[in-house]
Design a protein that fits this description.
Chains A, B, C, D: Keywords: Amino-acid biosynthesis, Aromatic amino acid biosynthesis, FAD, Flavoprotein, FMN, Lyase, NADP. Chains A, B, C, D: This is Chorismate synthase. Chains A, B, C, D: Homotetramer. 4 copies of one chain form a homotetramer. Chain A has a single domain, classed as Chorismate synthase AroC (Chorismate synthase, AroC fold, 4-Layer Sandwich), CATH 3.60.150. Chain A contains 7 helices and 18 strands. Chain A has a 5-stranded antiparallel β-sheet, covered by helices on one side. A 5-stranded antiparallel β-sheet of chain A has the order 9-8-10-16-11. Chain A has a two-stranded antiparallel sheet with strand order 5-6. In chain A, a hairpin with a 5-residue loop joins strand 2 and strand 3. Chains A and B meet through strand 1, helix 2, helix 5, strand 11 and helix 6 of A and strand 1, helix 2, helix 5, strand 11 and helix 6 of B. Strand 11 of chain A pairs antiparallel with strand 11 of chain B.
Chain lengths: 364, 364, 364, 364
């Protein structure tokens, strides 16, 4: 109830602080019998890892994951899977006057007000570092969904600051440090270099997508598939907006164009983003999220200290000038966790799905 | 787990179908000792009620609420509050060929695939009529929060179709059928009249806001205040996008402008929309949602029937040409339910809040 | 979280007070497609109904159940099933000085201390009348389990006061007002008549059993099948003890006799009561519960009033001299709800069970 | 939902297997600001530790606990507290033919049927070793409750096999290996020595008690204090029965004697065991549990192998001949976790308790 467990039937309990001895999670509810090793998880962790380009934080963490339980002779047993990631490159001294002041736009202030105490080292619990265990848990969900339904999760950056990024192909995403679906990222690199020199930070827009999602996932009133996706995405650090399918563009659409026609060969379009009435249509899930600029910047900002007096705060240390850059694998993982949870929920009430009608296509 | 309960500590379990004998909800967790009568709830129900202008569905429902339990001698006792609303104006015959076909953009298709059976009368469980019990439950939460903290919830329409609506004053909202914060709604009326004649529907954009929200509400990792707001809003029928504070505009912002400065007199701005690190800052909560066009329109659309054969579907009966028009009180109610739940969660772990620092202002 | 919902995946939310306008429940998570009518539910309600013999309360309630939602054309749709039972024979005047005093052994005192307010009419929320909606919900679970697995739930009284009741046959249970598995209940009738004349009350011991329970139900650590049964049974009004299988007798047993041998033809005995390591063995679930004497008696008892002053309390009105008499159908219903919930939980994580080994027999 | 998390607001997620690299838990919901170190937890772990007398398993585990998160500068921060205990003395070879057979009375069979795969090393997940993290979590709860309300948890053995143990004083409990409240344990030692020589095992009966428990804890219908205690206790390995207060003895009591009179000086007796209507009275919580004989014994037993063929099974390796001996600190911990969870639940709905009446006494 204190908000550190994600999911209901595939439930991931996250623990740790940015500069504590270790971070990790416990996955409860994983179906038994799936082959699983650390290597299956490490791949996605490496995609999210800091220090991999000059555009992200230079903190050097191998983020090597260890499976502590729930796997026997290389297969999941149905019991909790505990995953542990040691913190190895904490430098708590970098945090200068943050201990006594509050960064504008940062959780410093609210944690202090909520708990009356906060671990300020590296942002403590509010650090984006805590997304690493979710990426690890997401890798387990992805593997099961892939084997079972062929479900695939993909993400890419579609805008950085005020620079929109066109879509050329998913194939380009792994080949540049931005997760951009284009071949030429020179403009993005220049933009980021200038930003870093200016001691400033910027926002980003990310698209995440899932294909081969079973029809019929999601609950009727509150735990709608799209509601749970919105919850998952808005819970990622720095996210300020979430869209499904046509999103905010649907405001200006007419009913005659927005509603996706059904044909015997499948849906003719995907304004719905793969969800109708909160339940998956079987089309691709299409999600877009807005990420705000990093609050930890070296440009001095007006603030107050913990006694309430005015001061200025400057954040030294190692930070991402655009947290959106590393957000793609995180958003994919969260989407996978939502889909996984809903597959198990669906099985509980309705048994294994038997689809009675063909329609699906469009958008893949 | 089947998604019909909203909230954790102030938990609202919703039941009913559009054309069944009754709809309602059970509120579990309401603090004891609060004065409560049907009249306290009816006011908000009346704001959401159908049939109040020519721009909404002409179904005539008094939506009179009855308290079945949880109140003794005019005060809440701490036990479940069951609220019942009789359905009185069902006309199930209006639904022509919907019984055997699927409306493009509607939950018809997904319910059928999920359950293998669906109640098609008036949209059954997927009808927006099921938001009525939430408005009722929200009224209970609003009352408690108002008495305890002076919290106020307000909403207004900010765009209908492609017509943006400026903001003049909250005072105008109750005086026009659109919940528009302006005095002159002639253009909106013309727009809606033309749309209705064209047999089409349109989307809308709604803003919801809460003031006098305690600082420190929300959980650190997953049940963040903004994540839960996104979940609540995306769960409202037809919503396709949610923003908190600067929302999607934050993508193009710089860290130097986005982060709200703290001063001894309070925050200097509210790009955060009242939430930092998932925890309320004490500033106004600011939320914006996108609502898609109604899928039930009289213009013929391509679809398939339940045997998978191509057909055309025309929706007769009484429908809202813009479901967004009645969405304002619904969005307010859902926001109130989120805040209420988080107040109780906060009390559980941290006890009653004692704020140690003054900052709050800006935006009220 | 306020304890009015039973179960997780087959979740029953109960509401109402003894003398309010109505009581009822909402079942969330029922699988779709099952035939269901009020008649399916009424049978069990009639078994629990007051006023059916001189040995139970003379309150005359038809306990007629109405299905408000979740059923379309005689089949469950997968959406919430709301069940309503009107209260028709409240006589709130009977409660004399209970309004201002606390009955020894009754929840009067604790409700007052917890909430600072209580509905004293008929015991309010603490009345055993609130088990009626559970019996109704249990009937839905029983029906589904019967159709799916042939599961049967049976209960009987095994002791009343200090009079033990032998076991002759399940067949006798419906033919006497005690749910006793014997033909001759004259001694029980005499015992109860004497007790009533003495203005006193007594306890009872009840056995509940389930056969044709699937193997493999229950979770490994906390939501063990036996833990959830203990929770369900101890939650029934007036229950003070719960045993599974050999129960307290197992304290004096040796490992060589207690552990049930496995043979190719099945288990050789059932000391386990159908549960090993918290997971069902497929043998009969065997449960025994202790029910304390009713606290509402006409013999004067020492107590205090709500100002803390000494007083005497006498309970007039209509009460069961032995609440255990009507407990049998309640205990059966609660056991059915536990099994049902675990079937759905099992399906979620492990899919539909494929048993790989024959052993089961013994004890049926 | 897979049953590895205990509690709702003070939620403990347990992970690990008997012979895996480590076991542990994550506590979510601990109030912030409490001083906490490993030493606070180690004391109770040492009481439960194996290898401390000849009457328990000779597995030699230091059970040294490490705090991985949730504590900053010696104080809890309100974020998850992860506790890790390394397994150091696994000897997986000891398990002979257990890999392919099922011990009578053991979870071997049910785990295999449920999951289709099981970790047989040391009982895997079904090992009583997994109670260690609960003892650790219970120590955190105990500390908070002690500081806040002066609540104390105590337990003792009241019967071993067919040998009843009288009650002399709580003071004797720490001074013998049986947690017996007597000075002379020679008879118990002889009994256990004979049992071990016979290659057999026996059951035990344990009493647990809590004093200075706040009045008003527990929920009205399902999460009653006694129901949650029954759930917690029946979830401990090998427990087959649970009693609250007078327990099964209440069956033969009359209402005139069972109901505890209230006087201005407090309750006159405690048949209720500290709970009325599911809500704590403020008197001592009194609980008694039955523990069955260990199923792992060296005497050959009839069983089947995983192909369903008849065989005999002999359990070599290191086992407790009476698991009840080490159960006392476990039962205390589970009781503490139940009380802690209910304190937080009570605060959520009702705020901090203000007791309005004096009665409490009796039984301390």
């Amino acid at each position: 109830m204190s908000g550190n467990t994600f999911g209901h039937l595939f439930a991931v309990t996250n623990f740790g602080e940015s500069h504590g001895p270790a971070i990790g999670c416990v996955i409860d509810g994983c179906p038994p019998g799936m082959e699983l090793s650390e290597a299956d998880i490490q791949t996605d962790l490496d995609r999210r890892r800091p220090g991999t380009s000059r555009h992200v934080t230079q903190r050097n963490e191998p983020d090597a994951v260890q499976i502590l339980s729930g796997v026997y002779q290389g297969r999941t047993t149905g019991t909790p899977i505990a995953l542990l990631i040691q913190n190895t490159d904490q430098r708590s001294k970098d945090y200068g006057n943050i201990l006594e002041t509050f960064r504008p736009g940062h959780a410093d202030y609210t944690y202090f007000q909520k708990y009356g105490i906060r671990d300020p080292r590296g942002g403590g619990r509010s650090s984006a570092r805590l997304t690493a265990p979710m990426v690890a848990a997401g890798a387990v969900a992805k593997k099961w969904l892939k084997e079972r339904f062929g479900t695939e999760f993909r993400g890419c950056m579609t805008q950085v600051g005020d620079v929109p990024i066109g879509f050329e192909s998913w194939d380009h995403v792994p080949h540049n440090p931005f997760f951009a679906p284009v071949t030429d990222v020179a403009a993005l690199e220049d933009y980021m270099d200038a930003l870093r020199k200016a001691g400033d930070s910027c926002g980003a827009r990310i698209r995440v997508s899932a294909s081969n999602v079973p029809v019929g996932l999601g609950e009727p009133l509150f735990d709608k598939m799209d509601a749970d996706i919105a919850y998952a995405m808005m819970g990622i650090n720095a996210v300020k907006g979430v869209e499904i399918g046509a999103g905010f563009a649907s405001v200006a659409q007419r009913g005659t164009t927005h509603g996706d026609s059904l044909t015997p060969a499948g849906f003719a379009s995907n304004n719905a983003g793969g969800v109708l009435g909160g339940i998956s249509t079987g089309q691709d899930l299409e999600v877009s999220i807005a990420i705000k600029p990093t609050s930890s910047i070296i440009t001095p900002r007006d603030s107050i200290d913990s006694a309430g007096n005015p001061t200025q705060v400057v954040t030294k240390g190692r930070h991402d000038p655009c947290v959106g850059i590393r957000a793609t694998p995180i958003a994919e993982a969260m989407l996978a966790l939502v889909v996984m949870d809903h597959v198990l929920r669906h099985r509980a009430q309705c048994g294994d799905v038997v689809h009675t009608l063909p329609p699906i296509p469009a958008s893949r």
